[in-house]
Design a protein that fits this description.
Helix content: 25-40%
Radius of gyration: 16 Å
Order of helices and strands: HHEHEHEEHEHEE
Strand order of the largest sheet: 3-2-1-4-5-7-6
Oligomer: single chain
Structural class: alpha/beta
Low-confidence stretches: none
Amino acid sequence: MSRVLSHQEARTFYDEFGSKQDRQGFYEDPALDTLVASAGFETSNAVVELGCGTGRLAERLLRDVLPSHATYVGFDVSETMVELAKGRLQPWAGRAQVHLTQGAPRLPLEQGCCDRFLSAYVLDLLGEEDIGEVLDEAQRLLVEDGQLCLVSLTFGETSLSRVTSRIWAAVHAVRPQLVGGCRPLRLESFLGNRWSVSHKEVQCAFSICSEVLIASSVSG
């Protein structure tokens, strides 16, 4: 497996990348549209997002989808991203918070504090151990019947998209900073028998493919 960025390297990259993150909407938006349409956010009471970035998705949820009483808490490793997200979510300051983390998957929140645990284009930055710890944390934070809501880069499903994902993975293997530390993953391969998948879909835009996965925790 190719080397992933350390937490400090990821922080440095995204501190510098800043608002340019939103330019990736050209391939991210179809997958995010699918997530929003499939995860039942309109009935959510509390959302926790790991890797909130500039707050673009959180703004959409708070403005257009979440009930007026629902709360949102976002976390990011980049100070730049946190400041951008705080500014973007200021209209919902009474029920939306954004916090800086040091990169550890464990979050300073109480068990069972949310019914949607959201992480979009974050797990594809992380090593296998960190991915496992994020899923452990999601399981701790979600109430019974809560939903794990993930989006990640994934492998192509057409001839052109397969070529694109191979090139992307090859570049990541040589210099992960050139692709923002992200590489294609198959999310379901990390779930084991602890999660029950209710929705899985691959969306491709401009030959870049993303996997949308929604799952609930399997008790016991």
